[in-house]
Structures are given as structure tokens and as C-alpha cells.
Amino acid sequence: MATSRLERIGTIFTRVEGLLTRGAMKPDDRPLWFDVYRAFPPNEEPKFARPKPEVKKIRQILYKEDAIRAKFHAEGHGLGVNMLNPSGETQTKRLIQQYAMLKSEGVPENELIEKSIAAVSAERQISSKTTKNPDSVTAQVLGSADIKNIFKE
Predict the structure, then answer these.
(1) Cβ distance 98 to 120 under 8 Å?
(2) DSSP string, 17-65
(3) What phi, psi does 145 have (nearest 5°)?
(4) Within 13 Å and on the Cβ side, how many CA atoms surround 73?
(5) What are phi and psi of 75, to 5 degrees?
(6) For FRET with 128, which of 17, 55, 71, 89 sits at 20 to 30 Å CA-CA?
(7) How crowded is residue 17: how many other Cβ atoms within 10 Å of its Cβ?
(8) 3-class SS at 37?
(9) Closest CA to 97 of 122, 119, 128, 129
């Protein structure tokens, strides 16, 4: 449906304002947004004929940890969050810390991911054994989790 030239002139605010000033609309019948718009008008009036805003390219924001995280997830080693851990430290954060530590020790690049995963898995097994109630169902599930093969059948 094509819009006529008259429909493109003015804004809804100017139309309602015109109805109010000429008495075609009672002040009690004005829309709720009208007073807000009048009190806080936009910087640029929203008109149909206004040129489109310049489309700016979105800048990529990447951190060095993102590359490491991507390596872990690309090889299927993405670990979930243990919500029972009161420290709030995620497994991914531990993987990144372990990766950085092993890299500073001079471990070859192709072995970093596997050794990081092995170290974090060992930490996780130790922490699951030292839970407050080792007989709880949650402790048993977390202790027997095979992180590397969790989705393999």
C-alpha cells in the first residue's frame, strides 16, 4: 500500500498537537506518551523524509583469552559451569589459567590444550573427592563425570 504525500508530512506528535490546539481532541483524551514526548523531545525529530543514518561497521572486540577459548571449544573441550562451586571460578577460567601457566613453562603449542585439560580434570576429580558430603548424589555424579567423552555414546 503506497503512502500519499500528505501522510508523510509531520509526525504523530505534531498531528496530536494540532488536534489538541484546534479542539478536535479533548485534553483528557490525549495519549499517555504525549506529555512524555513534550517533556523529553528527541534530539532529531523522527520524520519520514529524514535521511537514513550512516551505517558504521561494528568493530570486533576480541581478547587474547578468546583465541584460547575458541581452541578449547573447537576441539570439543568446552566445559560447563559447576554451580555447586562456591568460589564462582569456572572451568573455562581454570583452563585458560592452566594454558597460560603451561605456555610460560615452554610446553609446545600442540600439547598445550591436552595438558591443560588433563590438569583441570585432575583438579576437578580431587575437588569432587573432598566435598563435604561424598555420599550425596551430586558428589557421585560430579566425581564420575568423564569430561572428554561426555557427549560420546
Answers:
(1) yes
(2) HHHHHTTSS-GGGS-HHHHHHHHS--SS---TTSPPPP-PPPPP---HH
(3) -70, 130
(4) 9
(5) -95, 10
(6) 71
(7) 17
(8) helix
(9) 119
**What is this structure's pTM?**
0.42
Burial class (CB in 10 A: 0-12, 13-18, 19+), 122: exposed
Cell for 91? 572451568
Secondary structure (H, E, C), 94-109: HHHHHHHHHHHCCCCH
Separation of alpha carbons 37 and 15, rounded Å: 13
Number of residues assigned to the chain: 153
What is the grid cell recorded at 80? 560447563
In sequence order, the 6+-apart residues with CB closer than 8 A to the CB of 85 are 127
Nearest Cα to Cα of residue 77 among 39, 124, 37, 135 = 124
Residue 128 backbone dihedrals phi, psi, to 5 degrees: -70, -30
Q: Which three cell numbers stand for residue 118?
A: 588433563
pLDDT tens per residue, range 112-126? 878 888 887 787 777
pLDDT per residue over 15-66, tens digit each? 999 999 999 999 999 999 999 999 999 887 777 777 888 899 988 888 888 8
* Closest to 113 measured CA to CA, from 143, 147, 149, 73: 73
